[in-house]
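Pasting as-is:
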Amino acid sequence: MTSASAPNSLLSALDLLKIELDGAIAHVRLNRPVKRNAVNDTLVTQLHTCFINLPEAVRAVVLSGEGEHFCAGLDLSELGERSVFEGVAHSRMWHAALDQAQFGRVPVVAVLHGAVVGGGLEIASACHIRVAESSTFYGLPEGQRGLFVGGGGSARVPRLIGASRMADMMLTGRVLDAEEGQAVGLSHYRVADGAGVAKGIELARKIATNAPLSNFAVMQALPRIADLSQPDGLFVESLMAAIAQGDDAAKQRMRDFLEKRAGKVAKQG
């Protein structure tokens, strides 16, 4: 990836992130390697700021972690005693940031390695595609620490692996390795150590070539339809399909396909 540091002054000021822009792709790295990229309030806020202020040219994001781990979760050294209200406000701050990743403007590909624990798994579960290197391991240790997930994990992780499996991880401290994580649905792709970023960028480039409205429909409509009753979901699907196919970019792509200027679906090696 030929890259340039983010020229946008606002993005450049986000010191706990490393942001590189290459045309339609933004590569965002969590940048607290000494802390295993553990998340403090500043990092959550900077993630929120980053996703809101992506340059218009960006069509997909790759999110990874600097150093040996993706993210070891909440930085407990900064966790002071909070009132109930303060705890709710803190949780909602995480929700706002990760909602912007999941329901923002462009799809996000997470590249996972090392620890994907607690809040790290909550961040990963907000992304649309997850690539896991062999070193990846997943954990939800909140139950052993007298805590409960607060960054959206209870809403997102069960949609990937089921509530009972998440309960097992939280109640017993069970840790899943990369192979187990792939088997239960925490990752979409498994790659060798060191190969994750290249794979993530490859996928992001494919995603970035899609019609923006199609990507938007997949990000925004698909998860909401899945939460509706079947009759309601089918109606919303009809509306979204009509909107998408009425887009000028979609019409041009259909003409390209019918006039044999676009490739057909083929099995990938």
